Amino acid sequence: MSMNLSKDQKNGLRLLREFVGQVSTRVFILRGPAGSGKTTILSELIADSENKFILCATTGRAAKVMSYCVRSEATTVHKRLFNVSVQDGLPRFKNKDEWVEGVYIIDEASMLQNEQDESLLEAQSMIGIIIQRIKDSEGSKVIFVGDPYQLEPVGEKESVALSIEALTRHYEVSAMSAELEIVHRHNACSGILNLATSIRHRHKGWTLNDFEPTEDVKKISRTILLQRLRQEVECNTFHRVKYIVATNRTANEMNYLIRSQIQGFPTDLSVNDRLLVVQNNTFYTGKGTAMIANGEDCRVVELLGVVESIGGGIVDGKAYEPYLFQDGVIEVKTLDGQFKQKRVKLLLNPMFSSTSNLNPFEERRFYSFFARRNPKGAIYNPYYRALRVKYGYVLTGHKAQGGEWEVVFVDVADWEVSPFGYRWLYTAVTRPRTKLYLVMD
C-alpha cells in the first residue's frame, strides 16, 4: 500500500476490494463527509486492481476534479449514458445503445435524481437507468460515492443512491457499503470541522447561536459584510473567495452590489469580472483544456465588440426579450491547476434570471430560434453553443456543492426556514479550506 491510510480508510479499501473481487453483489455505496478521503482510497483501488473502471460524476466540475485527483479520465453521467436527440423543440437525452462493461464509479452521487428526469426522452429516473444497465450487464458493477449530509437532488427528499435501504425499496437490489467518518482535510482543532460535525450530529434544539466563533470561523453582521469581503479579496483575490446564499434572486442582487461597491464596475459586463458557468460546454474544448463545466469560475480578460441583441420583439402579439451575446476572452483553470485563456461567445441572459439558467419555456424557444437558422440544427449554431454565465461573486448552496475555496462567506440568516435546512447549512459551511464567515443577520 503506497499511502498512509487511517483505520476507517483501510477498512473502506478492504471492503471495496472485496466488492470488485466477487460476483454476487453489484452495487456498493462509499459514504463520507467532505475531506474524509473517499477519492484517496478509490485511487488506491484503481491503481492496484486489474478491473476496468469507468469514472463518472454528476456534474462537469466534479468530473474534472475527479479526473485530476484519480489521474484518469472521468466524464459526466449524462455523457456516459446518453446521446442527444430532439423532442418538442428541445434537446433531450436518449439512452445509448452501447454499454461498456466494467466497474462504474459515480462521484457526487448524492445529486443523482430518483424522480423522473424531464431532460430524458423516456420517463425514467437517472438512478433507475443506471441500476437497470448494471442488472442487464453481467460484467458490470457500480460504486456510488458521496457525502450523505450534503444537499439531496433538487425537488427530492433523500439521496437514494447513498442509502442501501432506499435502493432496496425502490430497485430491489442488494448492496455493500463503507462509511468514512474521520475528516482529514482540517486538523482536529479546526472550527470549520467542529461546526460541520456539530451540524451532522446535531442534538435537538441545536442552533448556530450555540456555536462559539473560532480562529477560522467568524460570525459577522450584514452591516460589515462588504468591508470584510473587500479585506479578504485584497488578500486572496476573488477566485479564492465566495459568498453563498439561499436563492438565485439573492445571488443576483448581491452580485450587482459587490460589483458596484467592491469592484467599482458599471452595470454592464466588464474586463476582470468574475463569471460562473451555469451549463457544461464542450464547444470550446481544445488542447490542454477539458470542457468548461457547470459551476466553474472564470474571469473576463477581454471584451470584443459590443453586445449583440438577437431574437427580441413581438410574435403573435406577445413580447419576447432578446437574447444577449458578448464575444470575449476568458481565463479558465485547467486540470493541472494552470490558467488558460479562451476566446468565447457568452450568453448573458442567465445573469438576469431568477433561476439558475434559462427556464424550460425559454430553453425551448432558444433552441427553436437557432435551429431554424442552421440547416444542420441548433447544436451547430455558434450562438446556441455560447457559454452560459452568471456573475460569479455570489452563488447558491446548490451551485456551491462540490466546490472548494480558501475563504467562504455564508448567509445563514434564513437557513432554519429554508426547505433544505441542515443539509443546505452543512453543504455551505464545508466549502472553505481555511476561513469561514457566518453572516448572521
From TrEMBL:
Keyword Cytoplasm: no
Domain AAA+ ATPase as annotated: residue spans: 24-177
One GO MF term attached to the UniProt entry: DNA helicase activity
Entry keywords, A to Z: ATP-binding, Nucleotide-binding
InterPro entries membership: AAA+_ATPase (IPR003593), Coronavir_polyprotein_1ab (IPR050534), P-loop_NTPase (IPR027417), UvrD-like_helicase_C (IPR027785)
Keyword Nucleotide-binding included in the entry's annotation: yes
Matching SMART domains: AAA
PANTHER family for the chain: DNA HELICASE B, DNA2/NAM7 HELICASE FAMILY MEMBER
UniProt name for this protein: AAA+ ATPase domain-containing protein
UniProt source species: Candidatus Raymondbacteria bacterium RIFOXYD12_FULL_49_13
